[in-house]
Write a structure and sequence with these properties.
The protein is α+β, with helices and mostly antiparallel strands. It has helices at 2-19, 28-54, 117-152, and strands at residues 70-77, 80-88, 94-97, 109-112. A hairpin with a 2-residue loop joins strand 1 and strand 2. The chain is elongated, with a radius of gyration of 23 Å.
Length: 153
C-alpha cells in the first residue's frame, strides 16, 4: 500500500512540476489537520443522516407537521472544511391517503417526511466512504511523518 502511495505522490509531484502550477509548501501537520477536520465533518454528517433515518416514520413533530429532513452545510476554510450549520430541507412533504391514521388531516391524508429512505442510505454510504478516505489519509500522513523522523535519527 505504501509503495502505491509513493508512486501516486511521485506522479502528482511530477505533474505539478511540469504544469507550471505554483506549489505551496505544506507540512505534515497540514495534512494531519486537513484530514482530521475532514473526519470531524464526515462524523457530523453521519450523525445528521442517522437522525434523518431514525425519523423516517415521524408523521407528527412538536411543530405540528411531519419531520423535515436536516442537512449539514459544509464550507471550505483555511484548515480544509468545516460545518457552517444545519438547515432543514424545504422540499414538500409527501402525502398518502389513510383516513384511519391518528395524524390524518380532515381529508384523510397523512403527511410524510420530505425525504426518501433510499436517498438517505446513499448519503450514509457516501459520508462513510469519505470518512474512511480521510482516515486513510490521516494514517498515511502520520506514517510518512514517523518514517521521516526515523530517517533523521
Amino acid at each position: 500500500m505504501m509503495k502505491a502511495f509513493r508512486h501516486y505522490l511521485l506522479f502528482f509531484s511530477i505533474l505539478f512540476f511540469f504544469s507550471g502550477a505554483p506549489v505551496q509548501s505544506q507540512s505534515f501537520n497540514d495534512a494531519l489537520t486537513f484530514s482530521g477536520n475532514g473526519m470531524l465533518v464526515q462524523k457530523f454528517r453521519l450523525k445528521i443522516v442517522a437522525e434523518n433515518i431514525a425519523n423516517v416514520s415521524t408523521h407528527m413533530t412538536d411543530r405540528g407537521g411531519p419531520y423535515r429532513k436536516k442537512v449539514s452545510m459544509v464550507i471550505p476554510d483555511q484548515n480544509g472544511v468545516r460545518i457552517a450549520g444545519v438547515g432543514e430541507s424545504q422540499a414538500p412533504f409527501g402525502r398518502v391517503y389513510d383516513p384511519s391514521h391518528v395524524f390524518s388531516d380532515d381529508n384523510g391524508y397523512l403527511g410524510l417526511p420530505n425525504f426518501e429512505l433510499n436517498d438517505e442510505m446513499v448519503n450514509l454510504s457516501y459520508a462513510n466512504l469519505l470518512y474512511e478516505a480521510n482516515t486513510t489519509t490521516f494514517k498515511s500522513s502520520r506514517q510518512m511523518f514517523q518514517n521521516t523522523l526515523e530517517l533523521l535519527k
